[in-house]
Design a protein that fits this description.
Elements: H1 2-24, H2 52-63, E1 70-77, E2 80-86, E3 88-92, E4 100-105, E5 112-113, H3 117-131, H4 162-166, H5 187-190, H6 198-203, H7 219-233, H8 237-246, E6 255-256, E7 271-273, H9 275-286, E8 290-291, E9 294-295, H10 299-305, E10 315-316, E11 324-327, E12 332-338, E13 341-350, E14 354-359, E15 364-370, H11 379-390
Antiparallel strand pairs: 1-2, 1-15, 3-4, 5-7, 6-7, 8-9, 10-11, 11-12, 12-13, 13-14, 14-15
Helix pairs in contact: 2-11, 3-7, 3-8
C-alpha cells in the first residue's frame, strides 16, 4: 500500500511540474523590453493591441528549437519596441562545422553579423549619397565613379547603371546561389582566393544579358556599389555609413568586418550590429526615412526600395522556407493575404536568418537573427503562424 501511495504522489508531483511549466514557460521569455536610452521607445503588447497568447507560444517553440537556431526575435509596433527575446546559440565562424563557432547566450548588447541584410544598408547609403548630392542619379553609368577601372569599360558594360547594381540586373555573369558558399566555384568566395583586386575581377565577368533585363543575385554588384560610394564621397563605405546613417540613428557599435587584402570592403554582407540597431533601420523605413523626427534618407528613396523593379518577380531564396519574393533596390518584397485586404512587407534578408521585416499597413517592424547557415531558415513560418494573426 505504501509503494502504491508513493507512486501516486510521484505521478501527481510530476504532472504538477508539467502543468506549472506549461503555464509559466512562455512568460519566462516574454516581459516588456527595457528602456536603455538608445533612442527606442518601449512598451507592452497590450499598449499596441497585440494578443500575447500566440506570441508566447512562438517564443516557447523557438526556445525548444522548433524553428532551428533563432538567436533573437524583436517586434516594434506603433513606434514602440514591445517584444525583445534572445536565445542561446552559436556565433558565426566561417571555418567551423556548420559555420558554428562559440556557443553564447545572446543578449541585447551583443552585435550580430547580419550577412546579406547588409545589402539593404548599402542601398540606403546610396540613397543618402544621392540626397546629399555626392551622386547625381541612379541612372548614371557605374564607370562614372570607377576611375581606376576605365580599361574594363568594354563590350557594352558602360550601359550598366547604379540602378542595375541595386536591382541585381547588371547583366554580368555571376554564380553565387547555385554553388555552395564553401566552394571555390562560387564567384563570391573565389574573390578571397583567386583575386588581388575584387573590383577588377568582378568587372572582368562577361556581360551575358542586357543590363536591366534579368535578375541574377550578386554580391559582386554590392562590392561595386561600395566602391562607387568611396569614389563619389571620398569616404569608404564604413566611414560614410557611420557618419550619415549609423551615428544619426544612435548606432555606436557598427563594424564592417569583411575586407579583401587590398582594402576593398565587402559591401554585400558582414556588418555587425545589434538586433536593436536592426530595429532602428526598419523603423526608419517604416516612417518614410525619418527616425525620431530626424530625416535620415528621402521618402523618394523609401518608395524606390518598396517598389518592385521591372521583372524581378517570383524569386525563391535558397535556404529560406519563405516562398517567392519580388526585389527592388536591394530590398525583398512579399505580400500576405488577409480577409478584405493584403498585407505588404519589404525585408532586408541575410544568410542564416538575419531579417528586418517592415510591414507598413500594420505599423510594425519584426527583426530576427539566427545561425541557420546550413539549415533551413523558418522564421517566415513564425511570422505567418504567430505574429501576423496576433496583430489587431
Amino acid at each position: 500500500m505504501k509503494i502504491i501511495f508513493e507512486f501516486t504522489i510521484t505521478i501527481i508531483l510530476g504532472l504538477s511540474l508539467v502543468l506549472v511549466s506549461c503555464k509559466s514557460g512562455p512568460d519566462r521569455f516574454y516581459h516588456p523590453p527595457e528602456h536603455i536610452n538608445d533612442g527606442l521607445d518601449v512598451g507592452s503588447l497590450a499598449e499596441v493591441d497585440i494578443d500575447s497568447t500566440l506570441l508566447k507560444k512562438a517564443l516557447r517553440r523557438i526556445s525548444r528549437g522548433k524553428y532551428n537556431e533563432v538567436h533573437s526575435m524583436l517586434i516594434f509596433k506603433d513606434n514602440k519596441l514591445v517584444i525583445e527575446a534572445y536565445f542561446p546559440g552559436y556565433k558565426y565562424q566561417w571555418d567551423a562545422p556548420d559555420h558554428h563557432g562559440e556557443w553564447v547566450e545572446w543578449d541585447k548588447g551583443m552585435p550580430h553579423i547580419i550577412m546579406s541584410a547588409t545589402k539593404s544598408i548599402t542601398s540606403t547609403c546610396i540613397g543618402i549619397a544621392i540626397d546629399k548630392g555626392f551622386i547625381e542619379s541612379v541612372h548614371q553609368s557605374i564607370f562614372d565613379y570607377l576611375p581606376e577601372h576605365q580599361n574594363l569599360n568594354t563590350n557594352g558594360k558602360d550601359k550598366i547603371t547604379i540602378e542595375h547594381l541595386l536591382t541585381m540586373t547588371s547583366g554580368l555573369e555571376w554564380n553565387e546561389w547555385d554553388v555552395l558558399l564553401s566552394s571555390l566555384d562560387n564567384d563570391l568566395i573565389s574573390l578571397n582566393f583567386d583575386c588581388e583586386d575584387p573590383i577588377r575581377c568582378i568587372l572582368e565577368h562577361p556581360l551575358v544579358s542586357a543590363p536591366g533585363t534579368s535578375f541574377t543575385y550578386s554580391g559582386g554588384n554590392m562590392i561595386l556599389l561600395g566602391e562607387i560610394i568611396k569614389h563619389a564621397t571620398n569616404l569608404p563605405i564604413d566611414e560614410f555609413s557611420r557618419e550619415y546613417l549609423f551615428e544619426p540613428l544612435g548606432i555606436a557599435s557598427s563594424n564592417w568586418s569583411e575586407r579583401y587584402e587590398n582594402g576593398v570592403i565587402y559591401a554585400g554582407g558582414g556588418i555587425n550590429i545589434t538586433p536593436r540597431d536592426m530595429v532602428k533601420i526598419g523603423a526608419t523605413f517604416l516612417n518614410d526615412g525619418i527616425f525620431n523626427e530626424k530625416r535620415i534618407v528621402s521618402n523618394q528613396w523609401i518608395e524606390k526600395c518598396t517598389t518592385q523593379y521591372s521583372n524581378n518577380i517570383n524569386i525563391d531564396i535558397p535556404g529560406h522556407a519563405s516562398g517567392s519574393h519580388g526585389y527592388s533596390y536591394s530590398w525583398w518584397l512579399k505580400s500576405y493575404p488577409r480577409p478584405g485586404n493584403e498585407i505588404k512587407m519589404y525585408s532586408a534578408l541575410g544568410w542564416g536568418g538575419q531579417e528586418i521585416m517592415v510591414l507598413p499597413q500594420l505599423n510594425t517592424v519584426v527583426v530576427f537573427t539566427g545561425g541557420n547557415y546550413t539549415a533551413t531558415v523558418k522564421v517566415f513560418d513564425i511570422l505567418e503562424k504567430y505574429i501576423l494573426p496576433s496583430i489587431n
